[in-house]
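Title: Request for sanity check on DNA-binding response regulator prediction

Description:
We are preparing a figure and want to confirm that the structure record we downloaded matches what your pipeline produces today. Could someone re-run it with the sequence below and paste the raw structure tokens into this thread? We only need the token string, no images.
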Amino acid sequence: MSITTYLIDDEAPTRRELRFLLEELGEVTILGEAGTPSQGLQGIRETRPQLIFLDIQMPGLNGIELAEIIRALPEPPLIVFATAFEEFAVQAFNVEALDYLLKPFTEDRVARAVRKAAELLRLRRGGLPVPEASEPPLGADKGEVKRVLVHQGDKLIPVAPEQIVFIRALEGEAEVHTANGVFFAKSTLTTLEAILEPYSFARVHRNSLVNLSRIIEIIPWFNGSCKLVLNDRQKSEVLVSRYHAKDLKQRLILSN
């Protein structure tokens, strides 16, 4: 049975990402989407979805405040927060969120949130007791990534971590260099670092994240820093700050 769903996020690219991933699953029916909390609340009242994906940092009401209003509706939907910010996880738990997804979204995590919603709805339909959450819904994102969703123009492209050579922070997004070209992700470097760290990625500069398995040469540089030569098509060079150089060398020693 398809789960009726509604999307609320003030960024159109994020809504497109979620819509793409949800439609790929084929287990949901998207009733609509909204770019502001007020439009979202009106849409929920009109369409009465079973599940919503809700951003937190939005103009006017934030997602936590909107969730409090939604919970007071006669038949409130299940809520999955979809955000770039880890620090709201406890507040999300307090408003009984079903799940908490960190950007950039992945197929596995979105699918898992939908499966949780399907199971909870099944229990409700059968009149069975619904288990209470015992801890904040943040957590299981890390270590489960199989593909990261990036974009190139209007195209959304899932990329496996091993295909990523390095990532550079830009204004408001990340530039993702892969074996097949350069793409972009609507996410902070800190979020990407937390997600990709289990896949042998390391921060080497305040604006750079590198796949350690892609390093082919380390060149000593000034004042204790160094440069990395990477095995992409361009043999890209990435500067390692003096602050990160010692940690990087230690990680490379431990990984050999």
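Thanks, this matches our download. The first helix runs from residue 12 to 25.
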